[in-house]
Design a protein that fits this description.
The protein is mostly beta strands. It is built from no helices and 25 strands.
Length: 340
Amino acid sequence: LFVVSFRGSLHILLSSLVMVRDTILPLLLFFIVSSSVLCLCSAATTTTVYIANTAGTSNGDDDGILVCDMDEDTGALSVRQKVKTAVVWYIEPHPNGKYVYTSGYNNAYYAYKVDTNGSLTEINSQPAIGVDPCYVSVDPSGRYLFGANYDSGSFVVFPIDAVTGALRSPSDVSTPGTGSQVQERQTGPHAHMIAPSRDGSHVLGVDLGSDKVFVYKFDANTGKLKAALAPYGQTISGAGPRHFSFHPTLSVVYVINELDCTVGVYVWNASSGAMRGLQVLSTLPINYNNTDGHNTGSEIRVHPSGQFVYCTNRGPPAKVPKSWLSGKRCGKAQTARMLA
């Protein structure tokens, strides 16, 4: 579950969905990341919140997007609108706050207009040019949407219409990975995230199946991806990288690895796109036994102050520890396992 709300700061509500017998239980973590997106407040203490349903139901009644009002004092959510569509894997706002974009389980990307009261109206959709689109992001200028297609291992770029916010036909598609063949889920490429660097000059594409974070030089005039001078950052073999987050001021990028429950810390070179491995930390408690692989890393965020990195783990409730990582001076903690 991924929730975005607009009110002076961007609130991100993450949920690891856990199967217990036949019931899906949400484990909710609340992160606050500073942003200057549009305030969509219906009252002084109410914020519009968009919930992308990633679980699905047997009858499909709750598939799609829930538009909710959140009471800022209590955190209570009340549903205002149900946007009926396929299961939504990820949701991302446009920098101007006028549009919202999603990736859908039906192999398509969607554009929505944010109405004056915060409700959503579909603008259009575009085929994913791949299978299982799981992530979307918008470049800082608001001119392009980036998408990651998990099963096909491809990254796709869509121009965004400057007047309507609609998605145009893709300007580029890239499938750089081949799979590392280390773990069962790495027999082929699995694109899990694509997003721009802080300045928008590069775009990073995470490939869980290939144990690589591919780095592109992005041409904003043509919408084309070109391999950077340093074309990828390498994770530990079998780590299975999932998502990344940049430090707000330092030249550091943090990568959460899904398969081995670790976070890789990399020094970022904004000129060449090089990612130099600095440190690897576990997202699990010391001496925690995860040999059965029930726990997997899922999401990562850097606090706006740059002092803390927050991560989430997924798994059965009895096996999901409350884990957090703190970072100062480039995010190095006292105990670490260094990259070779």
